[in-house]
Write a structure and sequence with these properties.
about 120 residues, single chain, five-stranded mixed β-sheet, about 40% helix, Beta Polymerase, domain 2, globular, 5 strands, alpha+beta
Length: about 120
């Protein structure tokens, strides 16, 4: 079983194989108990979106990882691949711009209460 870092690197490599664009990795470990990393990538067409998602699934299964789910393949505009602690979003540019997940998660990070410093 891969560590979260190894799994994230394997996902990025699988995305790059099929020429996904604008790959972003967000550390969500302190923001969500459900997953530790979110990987977001762009695809130019529904066909490429599906090909990228297929490649992520194949490459991670080859490494012995379980794929817990895939959503969005009917429209192909936004496909989510659930790998447990790593979530992969493959989106067409217009959909990605509209939902702007990067900004949402960055805002969540900035609004998170800062840990109090221990008295020195």
């Amino acid at each position: 079983m891969l560590t979260t870092e190894e799994k994230t690197k394997a996902v990025v490599a699988a995305l790059e194989d099929i020429k996904a664009g604008n790959i972003t990795v967000i550390d969500t470990s302190k923001l969500s108990p459900m997953f530790d990393r979110m990987v977001i990538a762009s695809a130019k067409s529904t066909r490429q979106t599906k090909a990228i998602a297929d490649n992520v699934v194949v490459k991670l299964k080859e490494r012995g990882e379980e794929v817990y789910g895939r959503e969005g393949e009917d429209s192909g505009e936004w496909i989510l691949v659930d790998l447990g602690e790593v979530l992969v979003h493959i989106m067409q540019p217009a959909v990605r711009e509209y939902y702007n997940l990067e900004e949402l998660w960055n805002k969540a990070q900035s609004l998170r209460p800062k840990l109090a410093k221990a008295p020195g």
